[in-house]
Structure of Glycosyl transferase:
Amino acid sequence: MIICSVTCADNLHEAKLMARAVKYHMPYAQVAICLMEREIHPAALDVPWFDEVILAKDLGIPRFEASIFKYSLLEGVTSIKPAFLRCLFDRHPEEMNVVFMDTDIVCYAPFDDLLFELEHSDILLVPHRILPSDYPMGYLHHGIFNTGFLALRRSEEAFRFLKWWGDRLYSYCYYDAPFFVDQKWADLAPALFNVTVWKHPGYNVAAWNLHESCRIIVGEENGRYWLADQKPFVCFHYSGTHGMLQYCMNEWIPDRNNPLYQLFHLYLEELEVMGKAELSQIPWSYDYYLDGTPVTAEEKKAYGADIDAWNSGRDPFASKLWASGDEGA
């Protein structure tokens, strides 16, 4: 099994923490990281929990620089996810299963139930919620599935899905409605592909589903955590640590003795140990032209709407003159 994620240099502290937990609970798993930077940052080298670090520009995406120039950091990193997943299947023909996890997900148990499910599932998507919610409008903005966690089994069906998904993210992986980067596209997948909707309550527990009683940790034994009905608490998605997660924990888990509070505080401490203070300040290399001039949000938006600039075949990072068409004159 390969467990993978995509990131930029400014988020390597999260990636290291994610990978360390994977290696602790699943030493048999390979961890692959795709780095969306011009070069591999030194902080990504010699990380004992990374088996492989691949630059996004080496995934074989056609006209890679032009395809990401129009995107923000979040959009650009997300847009290459399908290409990275397909690349891993191609590079590792002996591997049957690839699991994608956002860097802010930490596992607390091995993925035993998931691997069993993948024995007869091609594409496994995880819904944000598995019980009815009093706040259904969120689905209209964020989508039904949280694509920060998904799993694939080597199959033609999985490859068809990755091709379809990647084609759409190549051009339309915008944060703004109706896309919410890659997630609203995934809402269409069950109608088009053989998708398993993975409803195990212990996977991808997060702020947006803490109102579900089946997600609350009710027991701890020998370093393992358990939910109701003896379901294992497998991985937590620490999205929203700037406030949303704390709010949801206070709202839905008022008991401060619940183990989740201890895990959350430990997570924040470990991020600092992994170098958050320094790494989080690293600028994204694709936010700059090759001469070091910053690329503005307005220029990204203009390029995304400029068919002539795209058709010119020029690398938009080479010069601001892509906008005037005078580059190379």
The chain has one domain: 2-307.
